[in-house]
Amino acid sequence: MKVIEVIVKDDVALISCPTCRKNRNISVGSFKETGKRNLKIKCDCEQIFGIFLECRKHFRKPAKLLGKSINLSNDRESHDIIIKNISAGGVGFCPFKSHGTRKDDYLQVSFILNDVEKTSIDTHVMVQSSTNEYVGCEFISTEKFKKPLDFYLFT
After folding, report:
1. Cβ(41)–Cβ(48) under 8 Å?
2. In this structure, are 80 and 105 located in the same domain?
3. Chain Cα centroid distance, residue 3
4. In 3D, which of 122, 116, 152, 120 has the Cα closest to residue 139?
5. CB 80 within 8 A of CB 96
């Protein structure tokens, strides 16, 4: 069964049937509360397909940027990283080698945007999720680079 990622905005998801292309809005507030994100939908055309509810607060832009992280919670352990995605609220990256980063660690993350100005980002983040292959972080503050980041995200 094909699974379609659906963006949720204000507890409403716009779903488009992959067969007949009919669109409909469905309220998903109750699913957000339970944490259920994978749903089966049956369209009026009798087609059954799966959806995955994406409930992020901010648009996440894919990226491939070299950077560095320093774990401020773990003996200042330093790693070279590849920034995989950026949003107004945070950043996700892949470390080059194994690391001891855990959820709720504080990191200093630095990288250069590939915008015209080559904006340098050097900020503190809090780890929201961490595996050997991927670390997802939330910015603690974006005051210093909010304008260039917003411009970068929407160009």
Report:
1. yes
2. yes
3. 19
4. 122
5. yes
